[in-house]
Design brief:
The protein has helices at about 10-15, 25-40, 60-65, 85-90, 105-110, 115-130, 155-165, 185-195, 215-225, 250-260, 270-275, 280-285, 290-295, and strands at about 5-10, 45-50, 75-80, 95-100, 135-140, 170-175, 205, 230. With about 300 residues, it is of the alpha/beta class. It has a single domain (about 5-305), classed as TIM Barrel, CATH 3.20.20.70. Strands 1-8-7-6-5-4-3-2 form an 8-stranded parallel beta sheet. Helix 2 packs across helix 3 (about 60-65), helix 8 (about 185-195) packs parallel to helix 9 and helix 10 runs antiparallel to helix 11. The longest helix is centred in the middle third of the chain and has 15 residues, at about 115-130. It is globular, with a radius of gyration of 19 Å. The termini are far apart. The relative contact order is 0.14.
Length: about 300
């Protein structure tokens, strides 16, 4: 079987739920991850091993990891901020650790409580601790396409951070539009540049739909050579430390776009729609996704009685 043309990686259980004010029960989180596994994802970001005081919505990360049904071929990811978090993730048998540093020093101080030097020192300790262990490491450049406090981030700066990550020996790199400030021209230019450092099978793009450009930016990145994209079921999520930074790109909406335009994802779209339609019960409000509301374009309906 050939590899999918577009690899969609689910981050809803972590990025999607981290800012939800209503507590989502552990059993519901486990059922969500298991449903996503059955839908065919190759990579699911399950939770985050950060301070429960900072992100109380994910304080049950270890229990969720312990209870999920692991599907062969699926990588179960944990976001970790420091060595302590990495050690907890390893105890929980996470397959991959995701490290995050913002391109913007200001956002990194707000988000992580430290500057670049502090984050890179923490990443170095994590890389040394996991060397030789059967766990992958991915490193994310947050606010790669702009910061609400500093504005645009120079491409040279992004490339330099990516180079530092590669020097640590990471297995993959993510460019994140944390606050939804990216535009297609900017995306094409930066993706082409970073693909000169990181091969397409190791580079992930993470877009938010804050300003309605999420799907357009995915297409721009795909045309520039990117193949891997983070999304969140129902478009849930957003950065808790950036004004107005709502919503990731919606998983089922992107998968539908791919399938409608002939790009294989290897994912079960009807199953994703069913999962998305169950989100309002979990989070207590409607989700941002459009497909779960409208249904597939091929779904036909009987005409109104008056037209019969």
């Amino acid at each position: 079987m050939s590899a999918p043309a577009v690899i969609v990686q689910e981050v809803g259980p972590r990025d999607g739920l981290q800012i939800e004010p209503a507590w989502v029960e552990t059993a519901d989180k486990v059922a969500l991850v298991d449903g996503l596994s059955r839908a065919g994802f190759s990579r699911i970001e399950v939770s985050s091993f950060v301070s429960p005081k900072a992100v109380p919505a994910l304080r049950d990360a270890a229990e969720v990891f312990a209870r999920i049904e692991r599907r062969p071929g699926t990588v179960y990811v944990a976001l970790v901020p420091n060595l302590k978090g990495a050690e907890r993730a390893l105890e929980a048998r996470a397959d991959e650790l995701n490290l995050v540093m913002s391109a913007s020093e200001t956002h990194n101080h707000v988000n992580m409580g430290m500057g670049h030097d502090g984050s890179l020192a923490a990443f170095t300790r994590i890389a040394e601790a996991v060397r030789g262990l059967p766990v992958a490491v991915n490193a994310t450049v947050a606010t790669a396409f702009g910061c609400p406090f500093e504005g645009a981030q120079p491409p040279d700066k992004i490339a330099a951070i990516v180079a530092r990550y590669l020097d640590l020996g990471v297995d993959g790199v993510t460019l994140a539009d944390t606050t939804g400030m990216a535009n297609p021209r900017q995306v094409r230019d930066l993706v082409r540049r970073i693909l000169g450092q990181v091969p397409a099978d190791r580079l992930t793009l993470h877009f938010h739909d804050t300003r309605g450009l999420g799907l357009v930016n995915v297409l721009a990145a795909q045309e520039a050579g990117a193949r891997r994209f983070d999304t969140s079921l129902g478009g849930l999520g957003g950065c808790p430390f950036a004004p107005g930074a709502s919503g990731n790109v919606c998983t089922e909406d992107l998968v539908n776009l791919c399938h409608e335009t002939g790009l294989d994802t290897g994912l079960d779209l009807p199953a994703l729609i069913r999962l998305s339609r169950g989100l309002p019960r979990l989070v207590g409000h409607d989700s941002r996704g459009q497909l779960a509301k409208a249904g597939l374009a091929c779904d036909l309906h009987p005409p109104p009685a008056a037209a019969a």
